[in-house]
Every structure is written in C-alpha cells, then in structure tokens.
Design goal:
- This protein is mainly alpha-helical and 178 residues long.
- It has six helices and two strands; from the N terminus they run ββαααααα.
- Helices cover 49% and strands 6% of the residues.
- The chain has a two-stranded antiparallel sheet.
- α1 runs antiparallel to α5, α3 runs parallel beside α5 and α3 packs antiparallel against α6.
- The protein starts with a strand and ends with a helix.
C-alpha cells in the first residue's frame, strides 16, 4: 500500500510525538498531471473529442497522402508532430542545441506505417522522460530557446500542438469520407 500512499511525520502532543501515519495519495504532482493529459489526448479519453490515435486509426497508406487544398497531407502532419515531439524530448534530455530544421518541420515521408510507429515511439519516450522529470524544474526556463518559456509551457505546448493537428487530420478525414 505504500506505493499509493505518502508517509508523513506528524508532530503533535499525542503520546507518540513522532508517530508516522500513512495517508492516501490524493493529489498528483504536476508532472503526473501533465503525463495523464498527454496520455488522454494521445490514446483515448480526451475531453475534446477524438484523441491523436483516434484521428489516425484505420488510415491506410493511400489515405495518408490525402490533403485539402493548400494544406499538408495526413502523413506530413503526423511526421511534423513527431518532429516537434523529438524537439521536446531533446530539450528534456538536456540537448539544448537541438533545433527543428525547415526540412524536419514537415518532412517528406512515404512509409505511413513507419511514420505512425515513430509517433507512437515518441509517446513512450515522452512519458518516460516526464515520469523522471523533477517537478521543481517545470518553472525553469528552457535554455537556449528563441523565446523565453518554461518546461511547463513546453510540455503543455506539445499537448496543444498534438490536439491542433489531430483536428486537422479529422477535417481531412471528414472531407474525404474516411
């Protein structure tokens, strides 16, 4: 039961002034909340509608290349999402020189299933890094960034980025009826 509880020392005037009590773990840490939101928006249970996986579920290799006028195709959007997830992963790992080049921003890819696998792999990497990321660092500025933003903003930003592009994918799907 200690995995789901916090152990605290209670100092009081009771007969055992340093008695230890186990209390249920009720509040999640901020990194746990971020990880939970990332899971829900990616896998299932997103409050806003389809998750990322819902948006790309049952898309075949041919459909992945569909696009609306003057927009990116589904495969380009998913590869783009992964590129920016890689940016976040690198920043969390301390690689402050990593940048997303113009070529990496919307890479031209031709293997839909490899692109989906890379997206799913980035999800696992992000969740592992968030689980070990110190809560106190969330308020620190991300070093060597073009704009001043914190790790908290970076992590929430990648979630918003995913939701935005999942919406674009759903619009393409709806327009083409799949």
């Amino acid at each position: 039961m200690t995995g789901d509880c916090y152990s605290i020392n209670v100092l009081s005037n009771v007969t055992k002034p340093n008695a230890r009590f186990l209390i249920p773990k009720i509040m999640k840490t901020e990194t746990e909340k971020i990880a939970s939101l990332l899971k829900r928006t990616f896998d299932r249970g997103a409050w806003h509608g389809p998750s990322v996986k819902d948006a790309i579920r049952n898309i075949n290799g041919q459909q992945a290349f569909q696009r609306l006028n003057n927009t990116h195709s589904i495969i380009e959007l998913v590869a783009h999402m992964t590129s920016w997830r890689r940016y976040v992963i690198n920043r969390l790992e301390g690689n402050n020189s990593y940048l997303v080049s113009d070529q990496m921003n919307f890479p031209m890819r031709d293997d839909w299933f490899a692109v989906v696998e890379e997206l799913e792999q980035s999800q696992q990497e992000l969740l592992e890094l968030i689980a070990s990321f110190p809560v106190y660092k969330l308020s620190e500025l991300v070093p060597v960034s073009e704009q001043n933003y914190t790790y908290y903003t970076l992590l929430n930003g990648i979630i918003h980025h995913d939701v935005y592009h999942a919406g674009q994918i759903m619009l393409i799907r709806k327009a083409f009826g799949f």
